[in-house]
Amino acid sequence: MVPARNLPDQIAAARSLAARLPQLVDESRRLAVALRSGLHGNRKVGPGSDFWQFRPYITGDPTGQIDWRRSARSDNTFIRQTEWQASHTYWIWPVFGSSSFWSSSPKTPPKADRMIIIALALADLLLRNGETVGAFDAPHTRIAAHDQLAKLGHAMLAAPADMALSSTDIHPGRRHTVLILGDFLEFSAPDSSPASGLQHLAHNQNDGALIQVLDPAEHQPDFRGRINFTDTDDKVVFHSEKFEDQRDEFMRRSQKWQGRIRDAAMANQWRYDLHVTDHTPSQTLLALYQHITERPARNASTPPRAPTTGPRP
């Protein structure tokens, strides 16, 4: 729910976002460039041809991987490891519900803008690392080149705009990674949770992350006096004649709602993080990128690492 003021028309807001896409693509690239200089490549052990490193021999290692020349120079036996060269597929889903276009102040970007910037900056980093990135539009657009970011951005804009209604209809594949950004206000009712949708998306050993993007007024509201909160149909769902007297109760309900989102992610061993739009996206992007590229492979022999709540903005 959002305060009943500055609530944009969803169609007009979506068109405006699409019109600003070239500018937002440029901003996402600048963000990715700023982070890339401090990142190391995501190198993973695998059946590639490029040498990565030597490591000591462990009982059970194939003898064909022993590097006898390197081993002869010491008292130990060494394995020659090569770099994994297979591309991994990442599905990035910014959920552009009507509430995502809302901002509490002209000085604060709409949540939708911040979602697309983080999504495209993350895509840029992954693509330059040799990965494949896709969106959940009707054709399930996938790209493998960073110069196709604009195409990916348009595909993201065409993806479903309601996670509650659409998550169980999406089939991301097997052993892929699914990254969802949204305010998740569709799950703000006390009896609502994304648990079943995430369980469906996590099926077939898919890992992932939920990034909850909130306006500062949703995270720490400082309203005073009379105010109405409405749903996306402009129906009043919370009314207060003096909001400061009910702020504590509002925060309690808000924390329970965020807790349900976090618990649903962790139940599937996905990462949860919170981003507030009056903070720089760099910290959220860096933590997310490092988490998904340093995760262990999700398979029968290597269980996925339980995520921890990401750094608060």
Written account of the structure:
The protein has 313 residues and is of the alpha/beta class. It has two domains: 2-41 and 87-294, Rossmann fold (3-Layer(aba) Sandwich), CATH 3.40.50; 51-82, no CATH class. It is 35% helix and 17% strand. It has ten helices and eleven strands. It has helices at residues 10-19, 21-36, 68-72, 111-128, 149-157, 163-166, 195-201, 216-219, 243-267, 282-294, and strands at residues 2-3, 51-56, 78-82, 89-94, 132-134, 142-143, 177-182, 207-214, 227-230, 236-240, 271-276. The strands form three sheets. A six-stranded mixed beta sheet has the order 6-5-4-7-8-11, sandwiched between helices. A three-stranded antiparallel beta sheet has the order 1-9-10, with no helix packed on it. Strands 2-3 form a two-stranded antiparallel ribbon. Helix 7 (195-201) links the parallel strand 7 and strand 8. Helix 7 (195-201) runs parallel beside helix 9. The longest helix is centred in the C-terminal third of the chain and has 25 residues, at 243-267. It is elongated and about 80 Å long. Mean pLDDT is 84; it is low at 297-313.
Amount of beta strand: 15-25%
Number of helices: 10
Q: How many beta strands in the DSSP annotation? A: 11
Distance N to C terminus: 21 Å
